[in-house]
């Protein structure tokens, strides 16, 4: 079983590689830099919480959590924005351990819910999250405006 812990500065180059691998898996061209990853995970105003799965041969995966809120209910939440496990570590409980650690982190932050999204075609991920205790919610229309 891997050791799950918060990411530290020496972990960031490997997390960056894994984030780029996840983007490539989804057909995206990642533009995340090491400086931005450090700023957003370890800087003075962290934007994301990174948890890493450490094994005997290095990092085997990571989870990235972003805070959310349902203000009208005073309900804190977290979005499991990224979950990635290296090919060589899949099927060995790493993803399950990362999800469990993410849920524990959210509880410690006073959260009452955790969300996660998957590609509509990724049935394997959907089944994984159902096994982890997540309920599927009806997709709601979301909108975005780019600021820069």
UniProtKB/TrEMBL annotation:
Q: What is this protein called?
A: L-amino acid N-acyltransferase YncA
Q: Which CDD domains match?
A: NAT_SF
State the InterPro entries in the record. Acyl_CoA_acyltransferase, Bact_Acetyltransf, GNAT_dom
Q: Which organism is it from?
A: Sulfitobacter delicatus
The UniProt keyword set, sorted, is: Acyltransferase, Transferase
Q: Which residues form the N-acetyltransferase domain?
A: 2-148
Q: Name one GO molecular function term.
A: acyltransferase activity, transferring groups other than amino-acyl groups
Pfam families the record matches? Acetyltransf_1
């Amino acid at each position: 079983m891997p050791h799950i812990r918060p990411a530290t500065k020496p972990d960031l180059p490997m997390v960056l590689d894994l984030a780029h691998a996840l983007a490539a898996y989804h057909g995206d061209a990642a533009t995340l830099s090491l400086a931005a990853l450090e700023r957003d995970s370890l800087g003075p105003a962290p934007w994301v919480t990174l948890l890493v799965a450490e094994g005997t041969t290095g990092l085997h995966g990571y989870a990235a959590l972003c805070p959310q809120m349902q203000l009208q209910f005073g309900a804190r939440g977290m979005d499991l924005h990224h979950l990635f496990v290296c090919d060589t570590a899949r099927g060995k409980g790493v993803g399950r351990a990362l999800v469990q650690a993410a849920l524990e982190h959210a509880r410690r932050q006073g959260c009452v819910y955790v969300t996660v999204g998957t590609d509509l075609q990724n049935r394997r991920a959907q089944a994984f999250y159902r096994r982890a205790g997540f309920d599927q919610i009806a997709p709601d229309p979301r909108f975005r405006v780019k600021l820069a």
